[in-house]
Design brief:
This protein folds into three domains: 4-17 and 262-393, no CATH class; 39-258, Rossmann fold; 398-473, Orthogonal Bundle (Arc Repressor Mutant, subunit A). The protein contains 22 helices and nine strands. The chain has helices at residues 4-15, 31-34, 39-42, 60-69, 73-77, 107-115, 121-135, 146-149, 156-165, 167-183, 203-223, 235-253, 263-275, 279-286, 310-317, 330-336, 347-363, 376-397, 401-407, 418-431, 445-454, 470-473; strands at 51-54, 91-97, 187-192, 227-234, 257-258, 291-293, 299-301, 459-460, 466-467. The protein starts with a helix and ends in a 14-residue tail after the last helix.
Length: 487
């Protein structure tokens, strides 16, 4: 029988098992031990795949970091035979755009640049080629193209002006590089992540930027054989860019990779984090699941189906989310209550749910009977914290969401009649956002509801009403009757 202190130490480990579920905040030493290689996701690194699409929190940045920044593909691919990958010992991965670091323009610099000139498809195409050349500096003749390399990465005007001085030389140099890579049997793969950070408050300009990048690679993916691209796109941005993208998008869409998570993979991801956080949690989990030691990659739980994780979840929480089955099965609850309006559950909220619940349980002044670590009410209170954090983090990507939160303040209880909420949002578009520079991508209440359903913030019900999933409910200041008690 474990002691009170043993339980507290296990909860302490659980409360810090992942950097609030965010890959970009993960410690570099720990990252290889928590990254879960999913076969369907790693297909993104097939040389012929250009578009990699997924919703917020699906793990696009984690994939980008694992391969481009941490160089983990050779090691993780050993665990997944049969993947079609470039020769890993003769491939170089580069960043074509990321908001991290100073090699690329920040959002304020991007906005300031376009205050002085009109955004056009031609401008964006030139910009992407210029920054591609800069990313490939070590592979290109520096003397001939030196004007492009001289400016700071954030000085868009200087970079663009320099590129236009040597446009022909730059394009010829890129062609020559591809020919040389082919002779040397090498690949250079250029990855683009966080494209939504270019102009968060300007959908038209963001779509134009994405369209220019896709146009570049739709043309050159046929021209270049060894110089390849990976464009990581958020799902809603992909859908809207695809609608306006025309033939260029159609050429790349057929062979895209969609980043989605099965329940089995989500629970395997959660368990992998648990067993790699500390020795105590590793031993605690081993009582209910099989674990393999993968050396530098840490421990891997052996999960063949989602149900394999049920004994562990029930050891942590118990069978039910209350005194009986009426409050739901804990094993189902943990995923069902972090699903978005499309029924998708994602890694970031799941990790955050258990981190927050462990912290709440630690501070509660009481502990459940061993071997349980969490009481259902701790998970229920943690869900509110997850929702609050999820909505706040979405403000960066959807700045207009903060005003939506205010607009819904007088319609707090869900579900709503669809016509009612459409009229309410129609009024809000003319009042709440009337004098705002940050407007949602809609011009009417009906369009707004359609878009919120499209991105999973709202959910249509079979009876025609509109609901809000728990993932967004508390964070938007809304409520629903019933559920597991919080106290």
């Amino acid at each position: 029988m474990a002691t009170h202190d043993d339980q507290l130490q296990l909860l302490e480990e659980m409360s810090r098992m992942g950097s609030a579920g965010r890959a970009e905040g993960e410690d570099a030493a720990q990252f290889p031990r928590t990254f879960l290689p999913v076969p369907e996701h790693l297909r993104a690194f097939d040389p012929d795949v250009v578009l990699v699409v997924g919703p917020r929190g699906a793990g696009k940045t984690e994939l980008f970091r694992a391969v481009v920044e941490e160089g983990l593909l050779p090691k993780v691919s050993e665990r997944i035979p049969g993947l079609r990958l470039p020769p890993l010992d003769r491939s170089k991965w580069l960043s074509g755009y990321s908001s991290r670091g100073t090699g690329f323009p920040s959002e304020p610099l991007f906005r300031a640049f376009f205050e002085g000139q009109t955004a056009t498809d031609e401008v964006f195409l030139d910009l992407w080629i210029a920054y591609l050349v800069r990313a490939l500096k070590d592979e290109l003749p520096c003397d001939e193209l030196s004007p492009i390399f001289a400016p700071q990465g954030g000085d868009i005007g200087a970079v663009l002006g320099a590129y236009r001085q040597v446009t022909s030389q730059a394009l010829l140099a890129l062609d020559a590089l591809d020919e040389r890579l082919d002779r040397e049997d090498r690949y250079v793969l250029v990855a683009y992540d966080e494209l939504d950070t270019l102009a968060r408050d300007d959908w038209a300009r963001t779509r134009m930027a994405v369209r220019g990048l896709v146009a570049l690679w739709a043309t050159h993916s046929r021209r270049w054989r060894r110089l390849r691209a990976k464009i990581f796109l958020r799902s809603d941005l992909y859908e809207r860019a695809a609608t306006a993208g025309g033939a260029d998008f159609a050429k790349l869409m057929a062979n895209r990779v969609q980043i989605s998570w099965s329940d089995q993979n989500l629970l395997a991801m959660l368990t992998r984090r648990l067993v790699n956080t500390g020795d105590r949690l590793l031993q605690y989990c081993r009582q209910k699941i099989e674990v393999e030691d993968a050396g530098d990659l840490g421990f891997f739980p052996v999960i063949r189906k989602a149900q394999d994780v049920r004994p562990l979840i029930e050891r942590i929480v118990g069978i039910y989310m209350g005194a009986s089955v009426k409050k739901g099965l804990a094993f189902r609850w943990v995923l069902d209550h972090i699903r978005d309006g499309h029924g998708q559950a994602l890694p970031r909220p799941l990790v955050r749910l258990f981190e927050a619940a462990a912290y709440i349980q630690q501070k509660s002044g009481s502990l459940p009977r061993w071997p349980r670590l969490l009481e259902p009410r701790a998970l229920r209170r943690a869900l509110d914290k997850v929702s609050e954090d999820h909505v706040k983090s979405a403000f960066d990507e959807w700045p207009w969401l903060e005003r939506l939160q205010r607009a819904l303040a007088t319609r707090r209880e869900v579900p709503w009649e669809r016509r009612e909420i459409e009229r309410h949002l129609d009024k809000a578009l003319h009042e709440t956002w009337e004098h705002s520079d940050v407007r949602p991508p809609a011009t009417s209440g009906r369009e707004m509801v359609d878009y919120l359903i499209e991105v999973g913030i709202f959910r249509p019900r079979r009876d025609g009403r509109v609901d809000v999933p728990d993932l967004f409910l508390f964070g938007l200041g809304l409520k629903r009757k019933g559920g597991v008690a919080k106290k």
